Amino acid sequence: MASNKSARDGEKIWKTNIDKVNAELVTLTYGTMVAQLCSDLNSRYSEVNKQLDQMGYNIGLRLIEDFFAKSGAQRCSNFRETAETISKIGFKMFLNITPAVTNWSADNKSFSLIFDENPLADFVELPNDGRAQDELWFSNIFCGILRGALEMVQMQVEAHYISDVLRGNDTTELRVTLLRYMEDEMPPDDE
User: Fold this and answer.
1) Nearest CA among 27, 55, 17, 21 for reference residue 125
2) So what's the pLDDT on residue 14?
3) Residue whose C-alpha is closest to residue 62's, from 160, 152, 186, 138
4) Where are the beta strands (DSSP E) in 88-187?
């Protein structure tokens, strides 16, 4: 039931509270950025993946504020609720997509997001150099965004891709694992 409410909330927010940007502009701009990183880093795809993750992390640290301001969402009570909120409100709100939440671990600390569509990957063909298909995670920025946003709500997570249709897989699957809940820490010398 909470899942259906999240889906309705995500749809309502998308329709009423979000300034829209042309999807093709976002796709082409992101694609250009990834292509430039590949060029600048001499096709060292593991380094490109790290850079995309770090960019996403920095975005996530700030995006969470916009998420709470526009969604009116409250703090989630558990990691399952967090996953549903990410899928049905977060992705819907910012990208108008709703990845499926599935493949929960027995301890409820890991789940997968399965993307039926990925607007960042529209019009994309990976470089045909014999390595990109095995090494480049084109949408790795999503992993960093999730890490950064969840860190701001005291959840340290690991996020990584399991599969990607751009690599010839049947699905695009992003795995998220809760490492620990972080304590609110006061900076040194802060009263």
Assistant:
1) 27
2) 47
3) 152
4) 100-102, 110-115, 155-163, 172-181
